[in-house]
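User: Last request for today: this protein with magnesium ion, please.
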Amino acid sequence: MISGIRQCSRHLGRFHPLGSYVGMRRRWMSSSMESLSDDERLELEKDIKMFAQKPQKQVKLEDLMAFKQPVEDAALLRNGEEVLHDIAVRLAHRLDALRYLDYLIVLNPSISQIYSLYYNSFRVMRSTDPPNTVEENAKFVQVLDHLVESHSNTIPVLAKGFYEARRYISTTDSAKFLDTHLRARIGTRLIASHHIALTNPIGDNFIGTVQMNCRPSFVLNESAAFVGDICDMKYGTVPQLVIDQGADIEIPYVPVHMEYVFTELLKNSFRAVVENGTHNIPVQATIIRTGQGVMVRIRDRGGGIPPPMEKEIFGFAFSTFDEGEGDGFSTLNSPPGGGGSSIAGLGYGLPLSRAYAEFFGGKLQVQTYHGWGTDVYVTLRSPFYANKL
Ligand SMILES: Nc1ncnc2c1ncn2[C@@H]1O[C@H](COP(=O)(O)OP(=O)(O)OP(=O)(O)O)[C@@H](O)[C@H]1O
Ligand SMILES: [Mg+2]
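Assistant: Here's the final one, the structure of the complex with magnesium ion:
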């Protein structure tokens, strides 16, 4: 029945010259373009088309690390110019993909909010000149700061949009869109954040966003403390994390990526042990140095995942956590950047963690034993030796 309605409105929209499709799409697109003259709009449309045809540059850990310390002005300015171009290309690709979605999806208020954000960000990038002096670079960094900030809490918005529009898109198509979109988002944020951090260093032993001696055990403990606080608020109990091996291992890595993965995995493990009544058995982490980086195994005795569910867990929006609309959407009401402060609910934790682990060529695999517990193996690729700058 639902698909019948969908087919029908699709038909009306696509083939009726004055049908709802044309009018609705115009209304949707015009909301992002209200302050533009016709000429500016046309110019921007040409730019989107042109930039969407350019290839997106892959972000590699070795390239991020390839800046002599302290960064020379010439290298910084050259990077600024590349960053401006690369971000415009990436935003244009995303706009193109959003426009390709069925109009009933893009009409959803949350999705159209995302579209407007990308449109306006592209517009800002195209009206920004590459920095030619250190002073201009300082201003460019403010533009990048704003870009990162304005996109920081978009995942719950996107999730809400796709949840509401789920009847208009198949699970396969929405998974394909979200996977590409969210992986691209990781790259765009990293490119912007890296230039910001090359200009205003984060601290000792950092080259931009890369910490040359990033210690997985330290990040795990920080994540465990954060997730412990959430558990305390939610369940009134705090499961423990024990690191049984590799506490002193260090690799060059982007700590915020590591933190994302560990926080999501510990949220899942802590929730599982609490709900299974086994929170007195610590969650165990084992860290091993490999030729390609590190392998971290997170083992919990939270009862595991039932076999029929196993193949679903990497699906976007697959969650067994159910509280009204899902706790995850509540992050919509938290301050920007404060997303992810609920124990579960969106069903994005595992697929996004895998995307983060794979970003530099790593892996994330789940091995579960129903009735017992779950092991998650995370390989973070960094075939370089940790060193102090
Ligand atoms: N360690 C685990 N033990 C038991 N079940 C798990 C574990 N990890 C994941 N799961 C199952 O897989 C589902 C999907 O996990 P995922 O992290 O993607 O989403 P979520 O935790 O429900 O929501 P969120 O987006 O907040 O992470 C969970 O709802 C849970 O049923
Ligand atoms: Mg989760």
